[in-house]
């Protein structure tokens, strides 16, 4: 596998870089920067992590 752009909500939010049998997520948008440099098994796992992260972020902002 080569590097792959990660698109979420119609916007490129990062890239997946393969290495050591896993994918390292490199964030290019501030709203997903907390996930930068984390390792995932699949691109689907990256998308799910982004979705969870944004849901938590939005609920935290709504509670403030």
Structural account:
- The protein has 1 helix and 4 strands; from the N terminus they run E-E-E-E-H.
- It is of the alpha+beta class and 64 residues long.
- The protein has one domain (4-62).
| Number of helical segments with 4 or more residues | 1
Number of domains: 1
Largest sheet: 4 strands, antiparallel
SSE sequence, one letter per element = EEEEH
How many strand units? Answer: 4
Layout of helices and strands, plus pairs?
Elements: E1 4-8, E2 11-19, E3 22-27, E4 39-40, H1 43-63
Antiparallel strand pairs: 1-2, 2-3, 3-4
Q: Which tags fit this structure?
A:
alpha+beta; four-stranded antiparallel β-sheet; 64 residues
Brief synopsis:
The chain has 64 residues and is an alpha+beta fold. It contains one helix and four strands, in the order ββββα.
């Amino acid at each position: 596998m080569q590097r792959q752009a990660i698109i979420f909500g119609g916007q490129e939010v990062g890239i997946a870089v393969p290495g050591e049998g896993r994918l390292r997520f490199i964030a290019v948008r501030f709203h997903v920067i907390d996930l930068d440099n984390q390792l995932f098994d699949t691109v689907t796992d990256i998308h799910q992590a982004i979705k969870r992260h944004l849901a938590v972020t939005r609920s935290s902002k709504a509670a403030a």
